Amino acid sequence: MRAATATTADPDQPLRALTVGDAPEPAAPDGWVVVEVRAASLNHHDIWSLRGVGLPPDRLPMILGCDAAGVDPDGNEVVIYPVVPDKGDPRGYSLLSERFPGTLAERVAVPRENLIPKPAGVSFLEAACLPTAWLTAFHMLTTRGRVAEGSSVLVQGAGGGVATAAVALALALGKRVYATSRDPGKRERIAALGATAVEPGARLPERVDVVIESVGAPTFDHSMKCAAPGARIVVCGATGGHLATVDLRRLFAMQLELLGSTMGTRDELAALLDLCVERDVRPAIDSTYGFSAVADAFAHLESGEVFGKVALDFLH
């Protein structure tokens, strides 16, 4: 079968570690099933894997990919929840493509309980964009950020998968949303979604109840200053630098909550799918590639010139 595989690690030029070609058929142990993949999407997690982060040499070659939607052995249309219990990982779990082969293949083996019915109104491509970036944003907003208790949200660095998802989801949940981006074109697209788009570091007209933070060091001081008393600053990444400076005086004086967040639960993914149908929310898809052009898809994602998700259509 066709697959996109990390065959080595290259910290400086990760795309040189990518191989696209034939791979062995997946093996399904007891309780697992093989899904025919119809669509998948890329994440920066895949780029980091090609750099060798979280994917040591003894696990190579490894089929990449966390996200996919497809058809199970009974003919049901399903979305794959990518988190697998893993006693060998200090987190207690791993994502597909970390210890078990990932979704960037024509077929993938997953635990049966990781399959969630795909709603009829959500396409395979749309569904394949949800399990990592959109689930992360949903978990950050609802579970960690308790956005139901607030009325306003700031999303730092909108344009990437998680941040763009957070903007769309916060709007769908009826919140006032502010979002930053260095790129004027991305600010225009943020505004078109219904959010107030501002330059990084800009003064907001109000302090917000929840901050969605995935940039890190360059934006963290701004996140702190924009937080209302008792606000939650939820962090899922540090794409701009991981050594942020925290003004502890503001943290305790404003009684802020600084919360780490990663992924979400299977039930949250099911709830996210329900919300997408109920509120007619769909992921922003920056571009779609056929599987034969998967290397081009990776190059586009690495370029950073992306708004939303980069998707793969396995039927083309």
Question: Would you write up a description of this structure?
Answer:
The protein is globular. The chain contains nine helices and 18 strands. The strands form four sheets. Strands 3, 5, 6, 9, 10, 17 and 18 form a seven-stranded mixed beta sheet that branches. The model has no long low-confidence stretch (mean pLDDT 96). Helix content is 27%, strand content 28%. It is α/β, with parallel strands linked by helices. Helix 5 (184-193) links the parallel strand 12 and strand 13. Helix 3 packs across helix 4 (161-172) and helix 3 (130-144) packs across helix 8 (266-278).
Which descriptors would you attach to this protein?
single chain, 316 residues, alpha/beta, 7-stranded mixed beta sheet, 6-stranded parallel beta sheet, 28% strand
Structure described in brief:
The protein has about 325 residues and is an alpha/beta fold.
Q: How are the SSEs placed, and which strands pair?
A:
Blueprint: E1 2-6, E2 18-22, E3 32-41, H1 44-51, E4 62-63, E5 67-71, E6 77-80, E7 83-85, E8 93-95, E9 107-111, E10 115-117, H2 124-128, H3 130-144, E11 152-155, H4 161-172, E12 176-180, H5 184-193, E13 196-198, E14 208-213, H6 220-225, E15 227-235, H7 248-253, E16 257-260, H8 266-278, E17 285-290, H9 294-303, E18 309-313
Parallel strand pairs: 11-12, 11-14, 12-13, 14-15, 15-16, 17-18
Antiparallel strand pairs: 1-2, 1-4, 3-5, 3-9, 3-18, 5-6, 6-10, 7-8
